[in-house]
Amino acid sequence: MNSLSEFLHMGGYGQYVWSAYGITFVAMLLALLIPVRQHRGLRKRLKKQLARQAKSKN
Amino acid sequence: MSSLSLGKAFTTLLQRDLLLVMRRRSEAVNPVLFFIIVASLFPFGTGSDNELLQKIAPGIVWVGALLATMLSLDAIFRSDFEDGSLEQLMLSPHPASLLVLAKVIAHWLVTGVPLLIAAPFMALLYGLPPEAMTTLMISLLIGTPILSLVGSVGVALTVALRHGGVILSLLVLPLYVPVLIFGSGAVELAVDGFSPAANLYMLSAILALSLVLTPWPAAAALRLSLS
Amino acid sequence: MIMKFIHRFASPPFFYRFSAKAMPWFVGLFLLFLGYGLYGGLVVAPADYQQGESYRIIYIHVPAAWLSLFVYMVMATSAAIALIWRIKLSDVVLISSAPIGAMFTFVALVTGSIWGKPMWGTWWEWEARLTSELILLFLYLGIIALYNAVEDKRIASRAVAILTLVGVVNIPIIHYSVEWWNTLHQGPTVTKFDKPSIHLSMLLPLLSMAIAFKLYYGLALLARARNELLQRERNAGWVKEMLKDE
Question: For residue C33, what pLDDT is reported?
């Protein structure tokens, strides 16, 4: 393919090709970002719990 | 209780389950009633064109039987689970998988057999040609036990859950699809004048596989549900 | 000797630390194979003789479909290991993989549907591969639903392991029955998921994308498994030590 506009146009099938790639990209990104975010929240919560337990022991 | 041989325990359990159902005969009729209702409803939805009805008859009868079985699955373990007799059963020295098999056979006798009897009448309403009727009966005869066997694994996994019924349908649906395909496919072949033998052999193979492979996970799942 | 290695690897604190170090490698390799696959597939490979440019969806549809099955196989293996040897990590791998597998199945279905629209004219066709993927999606959703419905997660893990194994026995039966069903009711439309003329310039990017997706699965699995492990082991000594040290 010779130019960016041809690339985007995809021989007339642009909307199909790019929506397919787009949905795939979004799905895979989300499936990765969600657990990473959850991980940070989890660690924060556990650390807070630990601090509370240590305090109540004193 | 003096020790029972496995064979005696098996038949005693089977008889007891059948007896319990006989006492609540009106409840036992529900699956067949549901099947008749479903099969009767479709023409109102699709129009009563005879050619169309004849074409969809195998599918309608089979899906109706499948749905009716799905609804009735809960009954295999529910009452025993709730009144504690299931726990007692699992404590017995006999292999749990065989006791489960006895209960599944009881379920099929109570649900599958009446469906077998009602099916040809509903098929008549759809104008299923007589040469396909035998195939319909045989496919259901082989297929409905598979539905009970495979369904028992699903019920065993969900009997202790609060909204087990919904999850049960989700669990059991993918497992039922091949039975439905080969069962109704056999009848379709017979309607078109072809031999349904290959399909019926496939169904028999699946039945044999289910007989051997489903009691163990069902028993294991029951133990989980009881814990 | 192998058992010792497995036991050491499967110990939660070891796996947790190992996964943290391994993840950047997965990211790097993933981007590498993804880059080559996308460039080779979208830019270098020529258009298909019959389908023109729309065939390029193959570079995400087929790897997604392959992964949807691959993930289930990993889950089935973990289920067997979990039930036989009671290794906690196997339970974790099983339940962490399920959403990823469901995602790939969903992507395979959606991309398959989008691919089909310009060719068939409809958004859905009851052809063998797509229908099998649909049933596979139900299998995944059932596993996830069952796990969420059982409160005691140890029991939930075992229940889901049993369900996964029951499902894996059924997958070949389902595939074969759907194939047969499709040939029985074959309409005039020819299924065109079967092999457009595939030459090397198309095959290499395809394989690269498949490897990239596998690496992604590893990455996402590690991310989820860490969460699951941390959650299950939150009262264990090693977790408390690790959190204190920060």
Answer: 96
| Sign of torsion over alpha carbons B192, B196, B202, B207 | positive
**Number of residues that make up chain C:** 246
Query: Is B175 within 8 Å of C166 when comparing Cβ atoms?
Result: yes
C167 neighbourhood in chain B, CB within 8 Å: 174-175
Show residues of chain C in contact with A33, CB under 8 Å.
none
Per-residue pLDDT of B69-117, as tens digits, reads 999 998 889 888 888 888 888 888 888 999 999 999 999 999 999 999 9
Q: What ipTM was predicted for this assembly? A: 0.89
Q: Give the gap in angstroms from C-alpha C135 to the nearest C-alpha of chain B.
A: 6
CB-based contacts of C70, cutoff 8 Å, min separation 6: C214, C217
The answer, for B25 touching chain C at a CB cutoff of 8 Å, is no
Here the tokens at position C5 are 């290695």
Please name the amino acid found at residue B66.
L
pLDDT at A48 over 60: yes
Query: Which class for C13: exposed (0-12), middle (13-18), buried (19 or more C-beta within 10 A)?
Result: middle
C114: nearest CA in chain A? Answer: A16
Q: How far apart are CA C179 and CA C170, in angstroms?
A: 14
Residue ranges in B127-163 assigned as alpha helix (H): 130-158
What would the pLDDT profile of C207-222 be if each residue is shown by its tens digit? 999 999 999 999 999 9
Q: Please count the CA atoms within 13 angstroms of the CA of C124 that sit on its side-chain side.
A: 7
* C-chain residues near B171 (CB < 8 A): 142, 145-146, 163
User: What are the structure tokens assigned to B149, written together?
Assistant: 């066997």
Q: Which residues contact B16 (CB under 8 A, 6 or more apart)?
A: none
CA distances (Å), A53 to each of A47, A56, C47, C108, C227, in order? 10, 5, 64, 47, 21
Spatial distance between the Cα atoms of B227 and B87, rounded to a whole number of angstroms: 9
Residue C189: per-residue pLDDT: 44
Q: Which of C69, C157, C162, C164 to mutate to test the interface with B (most CBs of B within 10 A)?
A: C162
Q: Is residue B92 helix, strand or coil?
A: coil
Chain C positions in Cβ-Cβ contact with residue B208 (cut-off 8 Å)? none
Task: Work out the minimum CA distance from A1 to partner chain C, whole angstroms.
Answer: 7
Say if the Cβ atoms of A28 and C216 lie within 8 Å. yes
Query: In this complex, which of B157, B170, B206 lies closest to C173 when CB atoms are compared?
Result: B206
Digit-coded pLDDT (tens) for C98-134:
999 999 999 999 999 999 888 888 888 888 889 999 9
Which residues of chain C have a CB within 8 Å of the CB of A10? 53-54, 56
- Inter-chain contact B177–C136, Cβ cutoff 8 Å? no
pTM of the model: 0.91
CA distance C111 to C109: 6
